[in-house]
Amino acid sequence: MARPKLSAVAELLKPITWFPPMWAFGCGVVASGMPLADRWPLILAGIILAGPMVCATSQAVNDWFDRHVDAINEPQRPIPSGRMPGRWGLGIAILWTLLSLALSTVLGVWGLAAAGLGLLLAWLYSAPPVRLKRNGWWGNLACAVSYEGLAWITGGIVMALGAFPDARSVGLALLYSAGAHGIMTLNDFKSVAGDRQMGIGSLPVRLGVDRAARVACWAMAVPQAVVIALLLHWGQPGHAAGVAGLLVAQAVLMAWFCARPVQRALAYSGFGVPLYVSGMLVSAFALRSAGAGAGA
Q1: How far apart are CA 13 and CA 55, in angstroms?
Q2: Other Cβ atoms within 10 Å of 3 Cβ, number
Q3: With the CA atoms of 92, 180, 17 and 257 taken in that order, what torsion angle do they form, in degrees rounded to the nearest 10?
Q4: Per the CB 3.0–4.6 Å rule, which of 198, 223, 279, 284 could disulfide with 175?
Q5: pTM, whole model, 2 decimals?
Q6: Number of other CB atoms surrounding residue 102 within 10 Å
């Protein structure tokens, strides 16, 4: 059987998508308030697990089960283009799942549990019969929780050597997960025609592109507003102002994006999403300044 080139394997695993969970894991590390000096091997293992392993697995799984949709929307991808021949795509997805679980054991029981949950969500999102992505509400929620909240909380657990992060850190992780639901919707505007034809109920298909764009923006903005209020309540006005400034910049871009969502979704992702994740790190440093720890 023909074998794919390494370039096709790399394209299947989509390194560009690894950043969000790696960043969220790092935010959990910062928010933990724990010293970094003696934790670097665990931090490195967690970052690799979050991005090149679990996230990459989710990309391979999704491309395999989306190969028929991609043949319409993005025929240049490795599987529909034939550069990933036969069942190589499925084989890589299974192999990366097993390698991810093996690496997660380095992080202890909670690391294994977090990786297992993330991988389960990846398969449930793409694979039949569940295939959560057929419903834009549930599918985007699964991705948002896995990419942001789960990675953040895992970073906190790893830093505390197995103790659960305090309620403030968990709260921020959940709020940024809720906001990431809107980020996931941005990815759906490029594939409306194929999704509609193949029965994928993304939010742009369910709601129409204009309404879906507004929903995505509100989904991103409201949790950040709550974060600002919480930071003020926790006595961190400087960090709250930082997040507020980033949100104002996003609001300007959101108005621009909503005017032509299909044409501008990719550009908004390139400029607006970095502002969103910058606010995550600012919030994490706020907890560090406030002395947030684990086990509360």
Answers
A1: 8
A2: 11
A3: 130
A4: 223
A5: 0.92
A6: 12
Q: What SS3 string covers the chain?
A: CCCCCHHHHHHHHCHHHCHHHHHHHHHHHHHCCCCCCCCHHHHHHHHHHHHHHHHHHHHHHHHHHCHHHHHHHCCCCHHHHCCCCCCHHHHHHHHHHHHHHHHHHHHHHHHHHHHHHHHHHHHHHHCCCCCHHHEHHHHHHHHHHHHHHHHHHHHHHHHCCCCCECHHHHHHHHHHHHHHHHHHHHCCHHHHHHHHHHCCECHHHHHCHHHHHHHHHHHHHHHHHHHHHHHHHCCCHHHHHHHHHHHHHHHHHHHHHHHCHHHHHHHHHHHHHHHHHHHHHHHHHHHHHHCCCECC
Average pLDDT, the chain: 93
Give pLDDT < 50 ranges for the chain.
Answer: 293-296
pLDDT for position 199: 85
113 is written with which tokens?
Answer: 């549990």
The predicted structure's pLDDT at residue 296: 42
Tokens 């370039």 appear where? 7
Distance of CA 93 to the CA centre of its chain: 18
CB atoms near residue 173 (< 10 Å): 28
Burial class from Cβ neighbours inside 10 Å (0-12, 13-18, 19+) for residue 115 reads buried
Helix 209-233 with 237-259: angle, nearest 10 deg:
170
pLDDT confidence of residue 50: 96
Q: What is the pLDDT of residue 295?
A: 45
Two structure tokens written together for 133: 């992505």
Contact in structure between 100 and 61 (CB atoms under 8 Å):
no
